[in-house]
Amino acid sequence: MRNEHALEDRIKRVNRQLDDLRAQKRAVVIRQILAQLKKNGITLKDLKEARAAGIKSQSKSAPGKRMVAPKYRHPDTGETWSGRGRAPRWLVAAELGGASRNDYLIPA
């Protein structure tokens, strides 16, 4: 039991030290941010207005893919192709058979 209490006390001490270290790091970062804001003439009001206006920070992920309207349609199966990327097998086969892509265009 005694070892258990000693370990619990040690864990509490280490957790307090960890919390203190995190608070110190956070304070440094906050000071740096405030210095940058002051250097660039940006106020907290400016930040609030920018947030309200929907200004977003640059995201690291790629933007979402946009849906593109189909450009070609297979007359029998109704399969479609947007004209982007690799041509579907049915269109490649039709072209090898002498057909033109224009034969499969969807009227605008």
Task: Describe the protein's architecture and organization.
By secondary structure, the chain is mostly helical. The protein folds into two domains: about 1-55; about 70-105, no CATH class. About 50% of the residues lie in helices and about 5% in strands. The chain has three helices and two strands, in the order ααββα. A two-stranded antiparallel ribbon has the order 1-2. The longest helix has about 40 residues, at about 1-40. It is elongated. The chain starts with a helix and ends in a 12-residue tail after the last helix. The mean pLDDT is about 90.
* Stretches with pLDDT under 50, minimum 5 residues: none
Oligomer: single chain
Order of helices and strands: HHEEH
The total count of strands amounts to: 2
Q: What Rg do the Cα atoms give?
A: 31 Å
**What percentage of the residues does DSSP assign to strands (E)?**
under 5%
Task: Walk across the major sheet and give the strand order.
Answer: 1-2
Report the total helices: 3
Largest beta-sheet details: 2 strands, antiparallel
Total tally of structural domains: 2
Helix content: 40-55%
Q: Terminal Cα separation, in Å?
A: 81 Å
Shape label: elongated
Structural class: mainly alpha
Give the integer mean of the pLDDT values. Answer: 89
Secondary structure: elements and pairs:
Layout lengths: L1 H38 L4 H10 L18 E2 L6 E2 L7 H8 L12
Antiparallel strand pairs: 1-2
Q: What's a concise summary of this model?
A:
This protein is mostly helical. Helices cover 52% and strands 4% of the residues. It folds into 2 domains: 2-53; 72-104, no CATH class.
